[in-house]
């Protein structure tokens, strides 16, 4: 299959977990009705972005994976014949939690999960309080509509993560994400931040010759202090924008991506071929100095 239709669900969330799940299911159905074959939801779509505070009560939002949310989504995937990429707060065992994305195939089969590797700890993004770094390594999932690579939000800043995922054979890379602007910032700072976010992900597409899909939430949260900036997008294998979401509206979009472009791009811009892998061992150092 050379062409695949990608559904992106950019939405705002509320405090009620079941309400968010129900809303996401309705939007998955909307995407499928528009022809989507793979539907990606935003990071931690069943809740508000709770990592703005360090609050032990928020651990109650977590669930096992597979678990209630995947059990709700699997029949939807089967009924609609779509692959679903679902970012969830995973409770692995007592006191051990991950930021995790589950992948459900178009026949409803749970294919597995990817646990977020890079965990931020910034003002209003206190994820290290909640999430243990992933220990499953980088992953691809062989779905009905292609080999899907999944990374999560903070992973998006690291070319090493995207490179490894591409080298594992991903046909397309997905980034469920949750990022926004502090509402007291000036507009120039806002645009600089968004442009950096989009640019780094588009560069993964260019460097690896694969399409990239980034799905972000919208809406004001944190008592109005944070405006999640939406701006979800889809690129082709050369980093060209095929779809760009708004900064303030919920959107269900379907974008056709031609996976055969990867072979063409890698032949004509042979970045993978020209990699000098024998020179790369220093990348495993924290910093290259005398220590």
From TrEMBL:
It comes from the Bacteria. Keywords: Hydrolase. Signal peptide: none annotated. SUPFAM superfamilies: Carbon-nitrogen hydrolase. GO terms for molecular function: N-carbamoylputrescine amidase activity. GO terms for biological process: putrescine biosynthetic process from arginine. Residues 4-259 form the CN hydrolase domain. This is Carbon-nitrogen hydrolase. It comes from Chryseobacterium cheonjiense.
